[in-house]
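Suppose you are handed a protein chain with no further information: no name, no annotation, nothing but its sequence. What can you learn? This example shows the usual starting point.
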Amino acid sequence: MEQIGHVYEGLLDRTAVRASEPILGVKGTRGKERELPLAMLEPLSAQGRDKLLEFLKEETGRSLSALRGALDEVNLPDEHKLLIACGHDTKLLERIRPFRNLVREDSFGRPVVTLADGIYVSTAGRRRSTGTHYTPPSLTEPIVQHTLEPLVYEGPAEGVPREQ
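A reasonable first move is to predict its three-dimensional structure. Written in structure tokens, the prediction is:
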């Protein structure tokens, strides 16, 4: 039961989003992998490498040296997989190429690229902002027993023995 509660709590932090433009799943540190619009990365890159690196550092939690290394990497990922992820759109592939080593892979080893009108799962942050948390039965049962039970059932407070 508690495992289901933890799964539920994790799902509260996620939301499905329809992409209005190509979105890249960018590698990050644990808990900071992001989905970023390609159209956001391109102007940052045009403003200069340092601007792009600072933005990526903030968004992904990766170090500047790791990000520089990814951008400078000469061993390129399988471009055919990237072309497939781009829906065989060679113009989109050209746009993504400068960022290809930033793109993470899914559990099947495919680059995470969401095309326009595709759906991706993103961190919503609603759970924390609404104070929604899973509480295990070991904590909730005593609370219910000692606060709600006296309001619902006749018991010791009314002079009735507990066993009745």
